[in-house]
Amino acid sequence: MDVLLLGVLGSLAAGLMTTVGALPVLLGRTVSARASDALLGFAAGVMLSASFFSLLIPAIERAEGLYGNVLLAAAIAASGLLLGAAVVAFANEAVPHEHFTKGHEGPEAHALKGIWLFVIAITIHNFPEGLAVGVGFAGGGVADGTALAMGIGLQNAPEGLAVAVALLAQGYGRLYAFGVAALTGLVEPVGGLIGAAGASISAPVLPWALAFAAGAMIYVISHEIIPETHRRGSASLATAGLTIGLTAMMVLEVVLG
């Protein structure tokens, strides 16, 4: 089978696992403020763990493999991370947020803006994962590409759940939360197509893309999500949720790695 098609299909399968992970919210109900903060904390923990284990560490490893220099690899990862955080920070200040908060005012509007920034950051992070799958099929063959797609796909399941519960916690309907979570994974086949089509070009870009996505997510988690979970007096519950989410994702990453 053509390597281009394999790259697209492999990254599509990985992206669809986001949809699978979001399925439990279809059984969910309206949540209390305390439960909302705990769920948001869990989502933040999942993505904080993914930022390091799925993005930064692979960025360093791939850069070191390309250039054979661990200091250069660390510098690339650090630069990409800072760039990702800076771009999201600039967008957060410069871009109007009326489309995020229409019909809402005050703290509620701020919370909604933060959730949508969270969703956008997760979508950004899915692109370099798809790129990695495409490069894997083009550069490493079917076996390497398939193993990479399976690993990323299994990691995507809790990420899909994180997006869905974050939206559900802010009062969005179950189908809407599920649908948005599913859509965040559909950028992966786009990355897979680009990665497979131009593996020689994509490979040097991949460490930067991975680190950039990590920086974007870390900024949103720290600037928006964690402050939101502490705003209503549920800091301890939110911290417990974050710790559980981070631990669960870390174990999954290590087992699959």
TrEMBL record:
Main location: membrane
Transmembrane segments: 38-58, 70-91, 111-127, 175-199, 205-222, 234-256
Keyword Cell membrane on entry: yes
Lineage per the UniProt record: Bacteria, Pseudomonadati, Pseudomonadota, Alphaproteobacteria, Rhodospirillales
Membrane topology: Multi-pass membrane protein
UniProt KW Transmembrane keyword: yes
Protein name: ZIP family metal transporter
Cellular compartments annotated: Cell membrane
Keywords annotated in UniProt: Cell membrane, Membrane, Transmembrane, Transmembrane helix, Zinc
Family membership noted in the UniProt record: Belongs to the ZIP transporter (TC 2.A.5) family.
InterPro entries: ZIP
Domain of life: Bacteria
